[in-house]
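Input sequence (874 aa), recorded before submission:
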Amino acid sequence: MDSAAPHLTGQTDHAASGQVLGLVVGIVHAVGWLITYWWVVAAAVVVIWTAVEMVVRRLARKASAERMALELVPSRHFDPGFEEIFRRGVQLARASTSMPWWAPRRSKSVQVRLRADGSSPLRYRIEGPAGGERLLSITPFGPAVTVNRVRPLSDKRRDHVVRAEFVLRGKPTAPLREVPLAPDPLQPLIDAVSDLRAELGDLAEIRLDIQRAPKWTLRARRLQLMTDARRAERREASRAARWVRQDATGIEDSLSWQLQQLVAGKQGGGGRRLVMPPVPRRVDPQEALGKLFEDDHLVRVQLLVMCASNLEGRAEARLAQLQAGLDVFGGGSRWAMRGWRAGPWRFGADHWPTRRSFERRWNLGQCQPPRPNWVRLDELTGLLKPPTVHCRLPLFAGDLPTFEHGNPDLLLQGIYRGPDGRRRLVATYAKETLFEVGVGKAGGGKTERALAQAIGWAHAGGGLMFVDPHRDSWPRALPFLAHDHLVQRIALIDLNANGPAPQLSCWNPIGMHQGQVAHEVVEATADAYASVLGWDDATAPRALTIFTAALTVLVAVNEAACQAGMPEDQATIFHLRSLLTDHDFRVAALTAVEGRLDEETRSWWKTVFPTLPADAFGVVLNPVARLSANPVTRAFLGQPAGVYNIRAAMDSRMVVWVCPGGNGPTDRLITALLARDLLRAVRSRRDTPEGQRVPFRPYFDELITLTGAAPETIAAMFEDFRKYRVHVHGMTQLLARLPIPVRLSLVQNASTLASTAGSQSAIAPITAEWGDRPTSDVVASLDRFEHYMSLTVEGRRVGPVRITGPHLDKVFADLARPGRAAALERAARATAGAAPLTTLTDRATDQLARVSGFLAQHANATPSNVQLTKKGYK
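Predicted structure, token format:
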């Protein structure tokens, strides 16, 4: 047994040695085979990888087809805080995982699309898995952002397209720059696309894909970063130790060191000093990993950009502008364009081999960046929200239409200068421009802008009324209206009576020859007087009663005269004196119209009037006496059947220029009568179906003067006229000087609110309506003809935006016909029925006799039960 044991042990050792040798030989043979037939292994790997990639791509394509799109439309006052934006980012990261279990990671992403094509400043869309729609539809932004479900966009082909992919460069653990929310971080990108032109096919789009960072990839990256940090620390410690030893050796070999040793008596003793090399310090994981230290709110992103145009060079220039805009986010890490440059050529997403990958990811919305591109959500706050109130947006044709001469659907507003310096005439839609208010100092361009708008509207076939107490607007507009197709539509009501042989039109406020309703005429005239004179039921009840009763009788007389076919025998406002003070005239009038008066009116004249003292009529007759003493107003109001008929002018699209003549007490009374008659005429449109009411635009220059005469009337216009398709445009130097009812109605209902330069205190009420953006000091420093204005387009407010007021000599230079101005003025006066002042004065003087004759004739033909008394009748 003992002799056999060594033999067995030897056999075992020999067998083990044989196995090891066989293993080595097998490995050598395997390596040799791999070296010889490496292409077989490579081919197998390629086939397997290709098969797996085809399956993954097919699954990813199927998953990408089940995506939805949302468009976020911010309000004008959208001003989110950091926390709201951060919460939105958390929603986006969470929604990226709302995919089926079989979906590949590349399809598990949410895409933010910033798109501009020249029709709007920037469209902000979110595209993601269909399963995340409910999560993405409810945003932390609240009602300040409207979320709309939209369909995928389809682009038409452009001639020139450039593509770019941006990756994070710099220190991988460093964050992007922390960009403040005011001004808006999107401002550089919006500025880059602010001069896009839709007619040239310009397009620019940025797509940011967001997905959760892969855990295993993140762990591997952290391990690599820690290893690199430790290796760098050891290398630094080794370098420091080497420098310490070199420094120590150099010191001991120096002459000063040797002298110190001789002086101290230590020569030759002790040898060299012991040098302790620095020990590598412990690597802090948080410092080494930076933003990759924690998993929370860490995402992987992909940034793709495409620019296109039909004009060569514009797409490339746009890409360069967007690249500069993205540089704003650069800090320790920055966005850099992927690719490489060789002289003047750049090879990137537009070239092989990366172009196909770019187009696949672009078309399918897949996130597969070539680099990790890891960022924290707080680094992306500038891109996770639509433009805010702190963003300055350009105006495109889709925001503010371009004015077209002769287009009745557009109303000229001014000249807009785009970011690229191009200037275009802009307009609003006529059907949406219900009321306009222009404020600013004298000479700032308010009237010039209103004239340009009115002239453009007239040439487009629209009707208007321009009321100018100072008459300066008429000679300014005259050359631009002197066209054959306008001559028959223009009427001039001028009460200034200039020249050696002045001509005037005429108007009977209480005339009935134009088919007016009797009680509406009485109410309009009485309200006009009461407005100017400050009458109301508390301060002058008796004056109102007497005046209304007298008007009722005179209007009834006129109604009878018109029905008898004798409109030239109508009474005027000046017959109030005869009715109240002339016994015979009063009896004849009351007798002639007794059947036309209601029982209450007849009773008043029978019972109340005889009891009134003689001095009760002075307050009523004094204003009439002032009108009668002025030859111009006597001629204008003293005719029985005046030509002026604002209701007919509205319905026939007339262009009526009214120049009351000043702002004195008499002028204010005339203005009040005209304003109240306009209110009556507009309200009389109740008899016309809404769809058949012809649009009409009154322009009121110098609202301070006009509202001083009829404040309640002007306020009622801004409140009621919209329903009758009559749209008022008002201009004033000081909003604060307007009566409170007028001011409140103006600001409340203004579709367009404009301001030129002026004092800050005068402009402050306007800028306050805009939220002090711009501030009053900015508006106060505007140049002449420059305006800030807010407009209404397609139901939403645009602006305030800076607009240059149109100058007639430039905007309508082709329409100027100065040689025909005199002929147009003669035609306009003729259309208004103007006659020499002396002729009208004589006719007004003879009118009392004509009315008395008609009353005598009509009273004799009408049976009456009137019994005369000392003062009246019973």
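Checked by second reader. Residues 863-874 have pLDDT under 50 and may be disordered.
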